[in-house]
Amino acid sequence: MKIVVIGGSGLIGTKLVNNLRQLGHEAVAASLM
Fold it and tell me: Which of 7, 14, 16, 30 is most buried, by the most CB atoms less than 10 A from its CB?
């Protein structure tokens, strides 16, 4: 599954993206500035 994580560059988002990738998902971290 392709997933975009808003706020993915923060502490929780980084861990979430890594966990999703380990589960076989295509996760991308997005950051709104």
Answer: 16
